[in-house]
Amino acid sequence: MKSIYRLEKPVYITASASVVGHEESEGPLAETFDTAVKGDDFFGKDTWEKAEAELQRLALSKALTKALMTDGEADIILSGDLLNQCIGSAQGLCGFVSPFLGLYGACSTAAEGLMLASLLSSAYGIRAAAVTSSHNASAERQFRSPLEYGGQRPPTAQWTVTGSGAFVLSCRRSDALRASPAGAAQLPEIFEVCPGRIVDAGIKDANNMGAAMAPAAADTLCRYFEGGGAMPQLILTGDLGFEGSEILMEIMADCGADISDRYNDCGLMIFDRKRQDKHAGGSGCGCSATVLAGHVLRQMRLGDLKDVLFLGTGALMNTMSVQQGADIPSIAHLVHIRSSAIGEEEKL
Amino acid sequence: MKSIYRLEKPVYITASASVVGHEESEGPLAETFDTAVKGDDFFGKDTWEKAEAELQRLALSKALTKALMTDGEADIILSGDLLNQCIGSAQGLCGFVSPFLGLYGACSTAAEGLMLASLLSSAYGIRAAAVTSSHNASAERQFRSPLEYGGQRPPTAQWTVTGSGAFVLSCRRSDALRASPAGAAQLPEIFEVCPGRIVDAGIKDANNMGAAMAPAAADTLCRYFEGGGAMPQLILTGDLGFEGSEILMEIMADCGADISDRYNDCGLMIFDRKRQDKHAGGSGCGCSATVLAGHVLRQMRLGDLKDVLFLGTGALMNTMSVQQGADIPSIAHLVHIRSSAIGEEEKL
Q: What is the pTM assigned to this prediction?
């Protein structure tokens, strides 16, 4: 059974874009998003679902613009989201002319999209886009209860991020150089990936996704190290939040791999835990997608960060499966991103 | 923009399996399914959703057995279904140890899974499984109304198939030969694929999916022919049903490509239109998956059919998007399957 795919031709993340809503625009990473809209989170639409679709449209448009590409120059678009039947992706990306592959990886979708996009790009020499989104209001009413209900949330509950992240990938260095922003010293590239397995840790509490997902993250991480994967500069999970992050570090320490000095979680980074009342942290497909597309890739382009294991985490449940008393199986997909220096001669 | 992926190494469908429920087991293809269970369609479970998950578990187990593989010998499993957040796949395939990629392609999922599985298998030399399912009772109550309500259906409505199809793919001819059933003369292989685009034809009627999906099928088919694709022996769509099939043939004729002498639709094949009251025909992820996994691939193995364009069709909507008055955008993914003769020396 193949665990790790080491790409013969690494694939460049030529451009990335992020669009977020009100709460995220008040958080510590506000400055790193391309578009941070303060207000009612409707983004000019009349329903939360259409607003989420609009987020994806905005994010992919921005990413293509940053990649200096027109619509249609992407050979394929991969996308998914948390809405029933992924209508955020279908409606949001309906206007783009490129072929489309729908994904469902719950909150791991950013990693699943990057993984498949890089595998296809490396093997078939194509340009691929990966997109995902989540919206606090559409997710809360679908999975738990409408915001207007004002239900009290337990301390382990997380806050679904309103945001969309989009990435454009290419195996051509010239594409990456052309799109590289002024001041950038490095080009981020995906050079190995490790798809996750479904792990059922027996958790049934829909308000404790971190506990459900942490064992899946540990499973992927352990298989990665067992398969000869190197310890990176930063291990970055998608949305384990406070609870799940603690559990992951404990499991890894028990397995003999102390990761606590090089670990962070997008769900812990996007909100200020003290200032913003977000309980166990951010979550949702849009959480890891916007933090990676904004803050993390910017740091990599500037050379402040050179080697990131990005581990998208997803809980595979729906409202009815929780009502039926089923466990919440989870999954975590791993994408290893490193940066390569832009040579002096390449800057010309 | 790349439309058609011609595989350098064709990928064999080494084994396929199908499991269906009561209505399908009374239809004209009953004998071609591996498992056709007459009865209440609960498959030993206590909810429709768990029954659908069980269908996937049974189908993949059977396909692996027929491929002479044990659990874990598949390098990756790709799956998706129609249930909210694809829990049929998550719960049904939770017990398998192979890495998992979740897809959402609505009723086009069988084709999307085969497409991605063959692209990955060809490029990375892996063994991949593709699975999908639908269940009449879980789908009807989720998308329209519970069966117990007994709502009247318009003539254009289709009948969601209760069934799951699973496919095991490998680029190694030896795998295909080893798993080839007694009496088989040919090995079916995927040699080119064409991913679909999202097409919005402005249809808003959730009881007329055929009309929503036919323009997407035509778009993919036209791009395929424009890209130099050859006219096959059989063009087989997933679940356009009576209404959609007529529309597709009309659009194609208008475009100068009369396909009526070589066209069929899985939704028209799985039920007997006169004897079984299924209105415009079968639909659902399980429709195309079980017809392909059973009847069509059996014909290909026997040499009765040698060249099939399989065109999975999917409508990208959910209950809420219909309630909100949104259009139903659609997609169609194309997988071209041909068969190669088993040589006399290979039979030893």
A: 0.98
CA distance A319 to chain B (A): 8
Residue B328 lies in a domain: yes
Assign 3-state DSSP to chain B and report helix, strand, coil percentages, each to 5.
40, 25, 35
- Residue B256 falls inside a structural domain: yes
Q: A185 and chain B: CB distance < 8 Å anywhere?
A: no
**pLDDT over 70 (residue A169):** yes
In total, how many domains does chain A have?
1
Residue A346 makes CB contacts below 8 A (sequence gap 6+) with: A177
Residues listed for chain B: 348
Residue that terminates a domain, selected from B144, B173, B202: B173
| B197 CB-near residues (< 8 Å, 6+ apart) | A97, A98, A99, A100, B216, B219, B220, B223, B331
CATH code of A3's domain: 3.40.47.40
The band of A145, judged by pLDDT with boundaries at 50, 70 and 90, is confident
Q: Which of residues 100-129 of B touch A (CB under 8 A)?
A: 100-106, 112, 116, 119-120, 123-124, 126
The pLDDT tens digits of the residues spanning B180-228 come to 999 999 999 999 999 999 999 999 999 999 999 999 999 999 999 999 9
CB nearest to A102's CB, from B105, B123, B326: B105
Q: Does a structural domain hold residue B346?
A: no
Provide the residue range defining the domain that includes B294.
186-340
